[in-house]
Design brief:
Length: 89
């Protein structure tokens, strides 16, 4: 089920959605002559349907960083996941 909606304004079809913090976001998909079906296809191609309800990366909070760190932070050897440090054993 889609979490966003379309708005037609000034000759453009726009996809709108809310982030987890309640901020409305808008992405222009094309001219307002696109049908809703074509618009949903475009939303799927661009992956915009996955953004609805997600935290806004530009306004991340310390709680978001801490939650991510606690979930994925350190391996058993003390290095972070995806670390590029060389193993000098």
């Amino acid at each position: 089920m889609a979490k966003g909606w379309f708005r037609r304004k000034k000759g453009k079809l726009m996809y709108c959605w809310y982030s987890a913090s309640g901020v409305e976001h808008v992405k222009i998909l094309g001219p307002d002559t696109l049908s809703d079906e074509e618009g949903w296809l475009k939303v799927g191609e661009l992956g915009l349907d996955k953004l609805a309800g997600k935290p806004d990366p530009a306004k991340i909070t310390f709680d978001d960083v801490l939650s991510h760190y606690l979930a994925y932070g350190k391996n058993e050897d003390g290095r972070g996941q995806g670390s590029f440090q060389q193993d000098n054993r």
